[in-house]
């Protein structure tokens, strides 16, 4: 390994110190360490210094390539990040010696149709949201799966989350947690003004279509990229053929990560009182 690209959180004061240390250790191992901002300047590995938000930014750089990502968790929850900055030397040695595993994460593919023409196309690692454009009014949406009408309601909007995104916005909106190895998408209503709206899980091979029946709306991808929607625009979400590859150094399974990140109680009421 000769080149490692770094994606840095731009507003964290301690990031530059960690990056300087990485550059020093990489130089000792004859590895070029540079800030990765230009998609054309491809490294062999991307190291992210920040939290999950910075990792989502790095995905925009590696999409369409096989470049793996290793996240150093300098954020808060950090479901996508794995390593910790106290292990800088060990990290470089293990990367150089290829002592790691690769975990692939599924993406959602998003297309906006306007009068049958495609006007926008992108991807999401976490979630796709279609939301109201103005705080004072609801957005009316009609939902289809595989071109069959599923339901229609008004509310604040709708989320379509990948398994990776099931612990993010979708979780806060009342959606289920989905393990990363389950190939599915989850539709989660956002404050729907209806009695019987619940999250729905469907296959990555399914075609989910939501049609805007309001004057306007906002399409938001991973909380990073937006597109203005108009009346009768169709937002189509399916599973993507692309994957994002993450580097893992240990075999900690997702259940253990859930317990650690959410600080879940693992002692029951009776155990607590009997102790």
Short description:
By secondary structure, this protein is α+β, with helices and mostly antiparallel strands.
Fold topology:
Blueprint: E1 3-8, H1 15-28, E2 32-35, E3 45-50, H2 52-62, E4 69-73, H3 88-96, E5 101-114, E6 117-124, E7 127-131, E8 139-145, E9 148-155, E10 157-161, H4 169-172, E11 184-190, E12 200-203, E13 208-212, E14 216-221, E15 225-230, E16 234-248, H5 254-262, H6 269-274
Parallel strand pairs: 1-2, 1-3, 3-4
Antiparallel strand pairs: 5-6, 5-16, 7-10, 7-14, 8-9, 8-13, 10-11, 11-12, 13-16, 14-15
Describe, in plain words, how this protein is organized in 3D.
The mean pLDDT is 91. It is built from six helices and 16 strands. It folds into two domains: 3-100 and 249-269, Rossmann fold, CATH 3.40.50; 107-241, Probable inorganic polyphosphate/atp-NAD kinase, domain 2 (Tumour Suppressor Smad4, Sandwich), CATH 2.60.200.30. It has helices at residues 15-28, 52-62, 88-96, 169-172, 254-262, 269-274, and strands spanning 3-8, 32-35, 45-50, 69-73, 101-114, 117-124, 127-131, 139-145, 148-155, 157-161, 184-190, 200-203, 208-212, 216-221, 225-230, 234-248. A hairpin with a 2-residue loop joins strand 8 (139-145) and strand 9. It starts with a strand and ends with a helix. The strands form three sheets. A six-stranded antiparallel β-sheet has the order 6-5-16-13-8-9, with no helix packed on it. It is of the alpha+beta class and 275 residues long. Helix content is 19%, strand content 40%.
């Amino acid at each position: 390994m000769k080149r490692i690209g770094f994606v840095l959180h731009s507003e964290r004061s301690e990031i530059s110190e960690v990056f300087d240390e990485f550059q020093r250790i990489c130089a000792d191992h004859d590895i070029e360490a540079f800030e990765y901002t230009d998609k054309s300047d491809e490294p062999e590995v991307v190291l992210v210094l920040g939290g999950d938000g910075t990792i989502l930014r790095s995905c925009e750089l590696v999409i369409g390539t096989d470049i793996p990502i290793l996240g150093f968790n300098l954020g808060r929850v950090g479901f996508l990040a794995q390593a910790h900055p106290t292990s800088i030397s060990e990290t470089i040695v293990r990367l150089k010696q290829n002592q790691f595993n690769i975990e692939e994460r599924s993406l959602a593919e998003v297309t906006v149709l306007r009068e049958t023409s495609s006007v926008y196309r992108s991807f999401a690692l976490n979630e796709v949201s279609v939301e109201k454009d103005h705080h004072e009014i609801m957005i009316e949406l009609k939902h289809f799966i595989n071109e069959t009408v599923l339901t229609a309601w008004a509310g604040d909007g709708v989320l379509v989350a990948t398994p990776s995104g099931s612990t993010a916005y979708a979780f806060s909106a009342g959606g289920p947690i989905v393990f990363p190895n389950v190939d599915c998408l989850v539709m989660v209503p956002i404050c729907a003004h209806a009695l019987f709206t619940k999250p729905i899980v469907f296959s990555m091979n399914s075609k989910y279509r939501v049609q805007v029946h309001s004057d306007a709306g906002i399409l938001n991808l991973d909380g990073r990229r937006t597109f203005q929607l108009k009346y009768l625009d169709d937002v189509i979400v399916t599973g993507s053929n692309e994957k994002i590859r993450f580097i893992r150094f240990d075999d900690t399974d997702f259940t253990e990560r859930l317990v650690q990140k959410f600080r879940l109680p693992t002692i029951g009421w009776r155990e607590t009182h009997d102790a």
